[in-house]
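Project standup — Tuesday

K.O.: blocked on the structure for the chain from last sprint. Re-posting the sequence here as requested.
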Amino acid sequence: MTLIVKDSNGNQLADGDSVTVIKDLKVKGTSVTLKRGTLVKNIRLTDDAALIECNADKVKGLVLRTEFLKKA
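H.V.: unblocked you, prediction finished:
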């Protein structure tokens, strides 16, 4: 079974895509806030359709929910 991962607008995401954050997100365990409009490049899909892994500016190994992302 193939896992289909979609962003907040329903666009299909794949490994290596770039996404934009659509809402300010506080990162747990740090004082960093990902601002709305932040571009995150080279995402990695996980076993869960609602989550992706990525590296943001100051945070490595970040896991984001797809409901807060849109494909760039």
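K.O.: great, moving the ticket to review. The mean pLDDT is 94. The CA atoms of residues 3 and 47 lie 8 Å apart.
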